[in-house]
Amino acid sequence: MSALLAVDQLRVRFGTGKRATEVLHGVSFEIAPSETLGLVGESGSGKTTIGRTVLGLVKAHSGAVSFDGRDITSAGRRERRALAKDIQVVFQDPYSSLNPAMAIGDILSEPLIMQGVSRRDARARVRTLLDQVGLPSDATDRRPQEFSGGQRQRVAIARALAPEPRLIVCDEPVSALDLTTQARVLDLFAEIQQRTGVAYLFISHDLAVVRHISDRACVLYRGDIVETGQVDDVISRPTHAYTRRLILAAPVADPDRQAERRRERRRLLDLERSTEAVA
Ligand SMILES: Nc1ncnc2c1ncn2[C@@H]1O[C@H](COP(=O)(O)OP(=O)(O)OP(=O)(O)O)[C@@H](O)[C@H]1O
Q1: What's the rounded mean pLDDT across residues 6-26?
Q2: Counting atoms of ligand 1 from 1, which one is nearest the CA of 220?
Q3: Closest residue CA from atom 16 of ligand 1
Q4: Scanning 48, 109, 123, 204, which has the fewest C-beta atoms within 10 Å of its C-beta?
Q5: Residue 112 pLDDT more than 70?
């Protein structure tokens, strides 16, 4: 695989001196062009920190992150600006990620104009973007608060697509949406990938969501990747106890099976705790 993004032995620490805490302990993975890599793990495992490091918002303590062969970790301001076109982001909360004072047309055209695109071309591009994410063209004059959560997330996706990026970091982009809207937005991500060839680093705590969208998946546990593979293999043949627990945590309709899964999850958790106590 020739990697679009390569993360190699990434360590991230927050704080300094005695107060420094390491939250990523040497994480490595790659994403190929047009591929979706799902990054799954419980709250606090370090998923967002990985995404923010890829976006250049968090400094690596050691290790390397390279995009298309260029080292991102040591990129200066000018290189960062160039990379910002190639690597975009969609955040979890469509309510706080869009400026409520701006009309959708301005939200989408402003970054293009800042890149030197003429106002006229930017307007035409905004119409195409709205069409691509399934929003009506009259959305340009309306403000974010006039839209539902799912529609706002479509605007956020359109904004990420505007500079024609090659990678989008999707940080829990459907977690704030109801289940039906989640499925529609996930389908939109897949459709956009087919059309544009963009790659995704898809961060989620939800294994079902990761399974729906990803080609491969990495399981992150307390700052370490404990499992990597084709998403169906990771789910059908988990090798790490934490992955097994994660799978058992997903709800099933049958109450007897649900109770059985709960017991098995508790057993694995007790086993893990007793192993930690011995260590
Ligand atoms: N700026 C920061 N300063 C200090 N600690 C931080 C900072 N950002 C994150 N952390 C800590 O790093 C750890 C990993 O956080 P991170 O947000 O990456 O986890 P996560 O897996 O994305 O969790 P969640 O799903 O809850 O967002 C947590 O213990 C968090 O408190």
Answers
A1: 94
A2: 21
A3: 46
A4: 123
A5: yes
Query: Do the beta carbons of residue 39 and residue 220 sit within 8 Å?
Result: yes
- Look at 253 and 210; give whichever has higher pLDDT: 210
Query: How far does the centroid of ligand 1 lie from the alpha carbon of residue 118, in Å?
Result: 39
For domain 5-101+165-238, give the CATH number: 3.40.50.300
- Reference 217, options 230, 204, 201; nearest CA is 230
Residues 6+ apart with CB under 8 A from 128: none
DSSP symbol at 5: E
Q: ipTM score of the complex?
A: 0.96
Euclidean distance between CA atoms 194 and 267, whole angstroms: 42
Residue with tokens 């109801």: 178
Q: What is the pLDDT of residues 155-208, one digit of tens each?
A: 999 999 998 999 999 999 998 888 888 898 999 999 999 999 999 999 999 998
Q: 240-261, pLDDT tens digit by residue?
A: 988 998 888 776 667 777 777 7
Which residues, judged by CB distance below 6 Å to any ligand atom, belong to the binding site of ligand 1? 14, 23, 41, 43-49, 205
Q: Which residue's CA is the closest to the ligand 1 atom numbered 5?
A: 14
Please state, in angstroms and as integers, the Cα–Cα distance from residue 102 to each residue in 79, 109, 145, following that order: 29, 11, 10
**Residues 255-279, mean pLDDT to the nearest whole number:** 74
91 CA distance to ligand 1 middle (Å): 15
Could you tell me the distance, in angstroms and rounded to a whole number, from the CA of residue 93 to the centre of ligand 1? Answer: 16
| Count of Cβ atoms closer than 10 Å to residue 64 Cβ | 15
The CA 42 to ligand 1 mean position distance, Å, reads: 11
Are 170 and 38 a contacting pair, CB within 8 Å?
A: no
Residue 139 DSSP code: G
Residue 249 and residue 265 in contact, taking contact as beta carbons nearer than 8 Å: yes
